[in-house]
Amino acid sequence: MGIRITTQMSSNLMLTNMNKNLSNIYSTYEQIASGKKLTSVGQNPSDGTKVMKYNKQLSQLDDWSKNIETAKDEINQSYDTLGLIQENLQRINELTMQAANSFNSEDSLNAIRDEVEQRTRTIAQLANTKYQDKYIFAGTNTSTVPYSLDDDLNVTYSGTKQDGNWERNIEISEGVTMPLNVNGEQILGDENGGIFATLKQLNDALADPDMDVKAISACLDPIQAGIKNITDVQSTLSSRVQRLDATSNINENAALGLTEMKSNLEDTDLAEATTQLMMYQTALQASLQAGASIMQQASLLNYI
């Protein structure tokens, strides 16, 4: 027994095809306008899940990129500050050698004494340098002023001790961290030893009316050792910046790869979408023509 195709069935089929073509046209228009062929996971669960994964990885890479820039800025701040401290120490070294000469006039010695004291206080000020409201030479006690000098140039160190948990690290890639800081006490010392203890001895020796030349000369080796130590620390900081730059390049390449894979899944191919739009428009036109023919036949049947 054959199936009789009624006018109503033909009309329903025509409307279904028209709605399908209209939906395809609207969807394709939206893809072209937005530049995205995938706007929700429901459109394509497999590709949508991949896009979500890529977005998460790209977000992580972006966080690492920001961490790297933060690390570079703080490390460069430490490097530059140590350079200024070193310049003051080098000048103090020159003044100490000059003071160790027994042929200085009283006025000359007074000038040396005053400059050494002022440069000592300048070094203390530099040792309390901040980056983003954090004292960079205070270890993990970043909100505490690390160095303070009293009127007699006695120093007090309030940062994290060398034998404590002084290192601050930041993540720069998967499972990789970088130290942000160096140990202030190890570089500049405290009330018990190091640069500040030597500078206290030097200032006391220069203030002594008897002017013990040997006591002044004894400060030269520790000052010069401090200058060399700063150079070594700066070398370490430079190596960190180089490693940060290398890691940044690796992360950027990874981000480019992920962005390309994500684009292949969700971005609209304009040429392909335009071709599809033309096909859907042609199909819609054919549906409309077929519909018009059906309606005409239905009208004729009404007169038979």
Molecular structure report:
- This protein is mainly α.
- It has two domains: 52-260, f41 fragment of flagellin, N-terminal domain; 271-304.
- It is built from eight helices and six strands.
- A two-stranded antiparallel ribbon has the order 1-2.
- The two termini are 26 Å apart.
Which structural category fits the helices and strands?
mainly alpha
Outline the low-pLDDT stretches: 1-5
Broad CATH class of the largest domain:
Mainly Alpha
Helix content: 55-70%
For the terminal residues, how far apart are their CA atoms? 26 Å
Overview in brief:
The chain contains 8 helices and 6 strands.
Q: Could you give the topology of this structure?
A:
Elements: H1 7-34, H2 45-99, H3 106-127, E1 130-131, E2 134-135, E3 147-149, E4 155-157, E5 169-173, E6 176-179, H4 184-188, H5 195-207, H6 213-217, H7 220-266, H8 270-301
Antiparallel strand pairs: 1-2, 3-4, 5-6
Keywords, please?
single chain, 304 residues, mainly alpha, f41 fragment of flagellin, N-terminal domain, 2 domains, two-stranded antiparallel ribbon, 8 helices, 68% helix, disordered N terminus
